[in-house]
Amino acid sequence: MHDIIKGQVLHLFEFLNHTLGLDSSLAGFLSEFISLLILFGVSYIVYKITVRLMWKIIIPVLKKSKNQFDDFLVEHHFFRNLAYVVPALIMYYFVGDILQKMPLIGNIIFLSLEVSFVVIAIVVFNSVLNTVNDFYSRYEFSKDHPIKSVIQIFKIVSYIVALFGVVAILFDKNLSSLVVSLGAVSAVIMLIFKDAILGFVGGLQLIFNKMLAIDDWISMPRFGADGTVTEINLTTVKVQNWDNTIVTIPTYSLVSESFQNWKGMQESGGRRIKRSLFIDVHSIRFCTPEMISKYKEMEALTPYINTTETDIQKYNTENKINPEVRVNGRRQTNIGVFRAYLESYLSTRKDINTDMTFMVRQLAPNEKGLPIEIYLFTKTTEWVAYEAVQSDIFDHILAVVPEFGLKVFQYPTQASNVQH
User: Fold this and answer.
1) What is the bridge-based pairing of β-strands 217-220 and 225-232?
2) What integer best gives the mean pLDDT of the chain?
3) Do 127 and 12 belong together in one domain?
């Protein structure tokens, strides 16, 4: 092949020299230039043929296979990038036979081709890395152990190796001597890649300590993050907030600072309701016989009222309590009956998880009144459904408070001070 090319260049030279009567030096340069253009054209045509054959033969076969790894290779242009090797090899092996009278241009082209081999290798390698990442991400366990940060480390290392390879080619240096000299500039490299190094270390800690995974709901007020994790990169973690805004958090910040992960709540099968309403203490009093009769008619309270009244009467009788003095002995209060009603009402709701912590309790009184806290868990952890359940519960509670002769405390307003 080499002899054929040399012969064709010689024939072209003779044609330009003898037939057209050009100067031999000019004819030599012109013949090599035309031959170089032809070689470029042939290389391009061979590249297009190679790509066409891949699309017509190789890629259809791969798409029919059940293995999805090759599908990801096609998606990340692995074969198209690999096809660049063909024209580069043709140019590399035949350009020397063409450029006999232009050694400087020949050397420049040789150097360019050697650099192009390095670039093609990096592009192909990146296609493989992207394929590995996407193929791995198909599996469910990849959410708990993402490898994107590791893939990015491999990419950075490959870029550094490629850079040293290009420098070695351009300056005709031994690659090993460049690696040895790396120690002299290691401090500069550490400074340049400080964020990447910290991010990589932080990412490994997040993954191996199972602190964070894709689709986790996290809150980090300092960065304005309150949403689901969509991506864990080498240097950043992407969070899509509930308002669909995207927040990027430095990976290392998630290790060095505190953040709230709601994954435990989501996996527990219940989401907590912990909310209080404040009862005006001036509305709290002992129950009268009329009030007891009224409460007995409430189906949710009938068993409680009957049992409690029996216990109270037995205690007062055994201890010879004077019923005329209201503070003597034991009596029911409207606030106590109200708490009993809330427990009965909430326990019958099908959207409440009674297998988890469930209580209605009093907290310490304060300037707003007596807090009655609802502490329980819903069966749903989905945000919208959870808010609907919580709102429905407190709609009912606020509406039923007056039935027990109680009042919900609220700060005085101009409307409440109007004399009627």
Assistant:
1) antiparallel
2) 80
3) yes
d(CA 158, CA 161): 5
Q: Would you say 158 and 122 are in contact if contact means Cβ atoms under 8 Å apart?
A: yes
Asked if 125 and 159 count as a contact pair (C-beta separation under 8 A), the reply is no
pLDDT tier, 136 (very low <50, low <70, confident <90, very high otherwise): confident
- Taken as a whole, the chain contains a residue count of 420
In DSSP terms, 361 is beta-bridged to 373
DSSP character for 128?
A: H
Report residue 194 as tokens. Answer: 């400080």
Answer with the one of 138, 166, 181 that is the final residue of a domain.
Answer: 138
Residue 331 in domain:
yes
Q: Are 72 and 131 in contact (CB under 8 A)?
A: yes
With beta carbons less than 8 A apart as the criterion, state whether 277 and 372 touch: yes
* Confidence tier at 29 by pLDDT (50, 70, 90): low
How far apart, in whole angstroms, are the C-alpha atoms of residue 239 and residue 225? 7
Question: What's the confidence (pLDDT) of residue 25?
Answer: 56
Across 54-81, average pLDDT: 80
Tell me how many degrees the CA angle 279-281-286 measures, rounded to the nearest 5: 105
Token pair for 107: 């050397």
The SS3 of residue 130 is helix
Residue 271, number of CB atoms within 10 A of its CB: 22
Domain extent, residue 7, equals 1-138
Radius of gyration of the chain (CA): 40
Give SS3 for 249: strand
201: CATH: 2.30.30.60
Domain match, 160 and 111 both: no
Predicted confidence band of residue 153 (pLDDT cuts 50, 70, 90): confident
Note the pLDDT of residue 383: 83
Q: Give the containing element (helix H, strand E) for 115.
A: helix 103-136
Higher pLDDT, 198 or 306: 306
Q: How many separate domains does the chain show?
A: 3
